[in-house]
């Protein structure tokens, strides 16, 4: 009995290793999009990934027919949202969008907008599932997605600087 149990444990560990090797990169990319960190310097995203993989490993036997990627993705999203609300409740100043690298397209979005855009457009999660996962109404998810897409697609116009002594026309 004991030998059979250790064989099952080894099999589960090998399955999880295969899963994490295959899905780890995509999950890290997802976490990097959520945190709006640069891909080469993303400590928050890496912490989210480690937490999601550890949580998935702990639940590996119970997942049986469920999609482990969806489980890890949902854990990552819920943890990111929870960290955001914990920071907000503690009244810790959030990093301003201007402190993010200029190449980060999603950096100018609010946390909720980033969550919705990444889930709906990058991950292809249905509106109902995104709403349930984030604890929002479907209407709110739809509105956040529309506002975020409009913000991302809005062309940026450089500000004109008036020179002192220059005549205005």
Q: Could you give a quick summary of the protein structure above?
A:
By secondary structure, the chain is an all-alpha fold.
Tell me what you see in this structure.
The structure is a single chain. This protein is an all-alpha fold and 169 residues long. The chain contains seven helices and no strands. The longest helix is centred in the N-terminal third of the chain and has 34 residues, at 2-35. It is elongated, with a radius of gyration of 21 Å. The model is unreliable at 91-103 (pLDDT under 50).
Shape: elongated
Helix amount, in percent? 55-70%
The secondary-structure element order is HHHHHHH
Radius of gyration: 21 Å
Tally of DSSP β-strands:
0
Total DSSP helices: 7
How widely separated are the two ends? Answer: 89 Å
- What is the residue-averaged pLDDT? 83
Q: How much of the polypeptide forms β-strand, as a percent range?
A: under 5%
**Major beta sheet, specifics?**
none
Which stretches are low in confidence, meaning pLDDT under 50 for 5 or more residues running? 91-103
SS content category:
mainly alpha
């Amino acid at each position: 009995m004991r030998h059979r149990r250790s064989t099952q444990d080894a099999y589960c560990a090998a399955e999880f290793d295969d899963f994490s090797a295959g899905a780890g990169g995509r999950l890290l990319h997802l976490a990097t999009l959520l945190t709006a960190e640069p891909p080469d310097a993303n400590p928050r995203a890496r912490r989210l990934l480690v937490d999601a993989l550890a949580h998935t490993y702990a639940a590996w036997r119970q997942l049986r027919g469920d999609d482990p990627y969806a489980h890890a993705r949902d854990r990552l999203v819920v943890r990111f949202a929870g960290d955001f609300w914990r920071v907000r409740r503690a009244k810790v100043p959030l990093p301003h969008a201007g402190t993010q690298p200029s190449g980060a397209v999603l950096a100018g979005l609010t946390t909720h907008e980033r969550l919705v855009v990444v889930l709906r457009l990058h991950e292809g999660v249905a509106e109902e599932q995104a709403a349930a996962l984030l604890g929002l109404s479907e209407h709110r998810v739809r509105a956040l997605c529309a506002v975020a897409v409009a913000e991302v697609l809005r062309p940026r116009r450089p500000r004109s600087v008036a020179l002192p002594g220059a005549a205005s026309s």
